Please model this.
Amino acid sequence: MKDFEQVEVTSRAAWRNWLAAHHQQPESIWLVTYKKHTGDRYLSYSSRVFRRVEPFC
Model:
């Protein structure tokens, strides 16, 4: 299995900033996320996916 870069996002702003800086990166990543019970570090699935596809809509 290939070792992909692990990207940890804990907010919509952090995810948006990472995407803005790396949007031309051709390599895959492992997106590190947290479950709801972790509180402040949790980012919902819809927030992660919507932010990713929003520029293409």
About this structure: The beta strands are 5-8, 29-32.
